[in-house]
Amino acid sequence: MEMPFCNTDTFQIFLNEFSKEKPKEFKIILLDNGAFHKAARLNTPDNIHLLFIPPYSPELNPAEKI
After folding, report:
1. Cα–Cα distance between 28 and 23 in angstroms, integer?
2. Is 30 helix (H, G, I), strand (E, B) or coil?
């Protein structure tokens, strides 16, 4: 899924759509500590768990090497 922005609204759309793929499957998403990943108004579907890497750990985030 490509989205025009990285913000809470687009991340919510992604979570909603991802939860519909194999809805009986429990999904764990590994994330960095971006503000929109932790927004208070974010509603995480029941079949998804968000797991955050520790702060200040660029060695665990492959995107940091780009």
Report:
1. 13
2. strand
